[in-house]
C-alpha cells in the first residue's frame, strides 16, 4: 500500500493522477497506523511551511513520520519540511535532514518564486536516475530552497546551485514536482516506488 499524507495544504490531484497512471493503488491518509503499514509514503506540500508543520502537529504525526523506516518522499514543501529549519515563518521542521531552508535571492533574470522547467544535474549515483537522460528537466514552483550539500543527489541552477533531489537514509526529497514533470517525473516516481524498505 502507498500512503499519501493529506494534511499539508496539498494539491493532491496531480500526484494521485500520476500514481494512477503508473497503475498503483494508494490511500490519502493521516492515520498513524496506516502510515506505519504502508510500503512507501509521500509527503506532498503546497503553501506555507509554518502552516504545514502546524497541520502535522495538530494531527500528531511528527513522531510517527520521523520513526518511519520505509521509503518516504517529500515533494516541494514536503521536502523542505524534512529539514531542521525553514526561514519561511521561522519554522522548525521535522529534523530528518540537517540544514536550513532559505529564501531564494531575487536577482536580475531570476524572479522569485521560481516557476518553470529546470535541468537536474546528478551529483551522485543513485537508483532514482535509472532510465533517465543525463540532464533531465523537472518542473519547479517554489520561493525557498536548500543549498547543495552532502545529502544532495541532484541539483539545479537558478542563479545559484540548489538541491533538487536529496536523501538521508530512507527519507528522500524532491524540490520540484515529479508528478508535473512529464515522462521524467513518471520515471522518478517509478524508481522511488521500486525502492525496498
Descriptive report:
The chain has 197 residues and is α/β, with parallel strands linked by helices. It has 6 helices and 14 strands. It has helices at 13-21, 32-37, 49-58, 62-66, 77-81, 182-193; strands at residues 2-5, 26-29, 40-45, 72-76, 83-86, 91-92, 97-103, 114-119, 121-122, 137-142, 144-145, 152-157, 161-168, 171-174. The chain has an 8-stranded mixed sheet. A 4-stranded mixed sheet has the order 6-5-7-11. Strands 8-10 form a two-stranded antiparallel sheet. It has a single domain (2-193), classed as 3-Layer(aba) Sandwich (Rossmann fold), CATH 3.40.50. A hairpin with a 3-residue loop joins strand 12 and strand 13.
Amino acid at each position: 500500500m502507498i500512503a499519501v499524507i493529506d494534511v499539508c495544504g496539498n494539491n493532491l490531484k496531480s500526484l494521485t493522477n500520476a500514481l494512477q497512471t503508473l497503475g498503483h493503488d494508494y490511500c490519502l491518509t493521516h492515520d498513524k497506523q496506516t502510515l506505519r503499514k504502508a510500503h512507501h509514503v509521500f509527503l506532498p506540500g503546497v503553501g506555507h511551511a509554518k502552516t504545514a508543520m502546524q497541520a502535522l502537529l495538530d494531527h500528531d504525526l511528527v513522531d510517527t513520520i520521523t520513526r518511519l523506516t520505509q521509503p518516504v518522499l517529500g515533494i516541494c514543501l514536503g521536502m523542505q519540511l524534512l529539514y531542521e529549519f525553514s526561514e519561511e515563518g521561522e519554522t522548525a521542521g521535522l529534523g530528518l535532514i540537517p540544514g536550513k531552508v532559505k529564501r531564494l535571492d531575487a536577482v536580475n533574470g531570476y524572479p522569485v518564486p521560481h516557476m518553470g522547467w529546470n535541468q537536474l544535474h546528478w551529483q551522485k549515483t543513485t537508483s532514482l536516475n535509472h532510465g533517465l537522460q543525463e540532464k533531465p528537466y523537472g518542473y519547479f514552483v517554489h520561493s525557498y530552497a536548500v543549498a547543495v550539500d552532502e545529502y544532495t543527489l541532484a541539483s539545479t541552477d537558478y542563479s545559484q546551485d540548489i538541491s533538487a533531489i536529496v536523501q538521508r537514509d530512507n527519507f528522500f526529497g524532491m524540490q520540484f514536482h515529479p508528478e508535473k514533470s512529464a515522462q521524467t517525473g513518471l520515471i522518478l516516481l517509478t524508481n522511488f516506488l521500486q525502492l525496498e524498505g
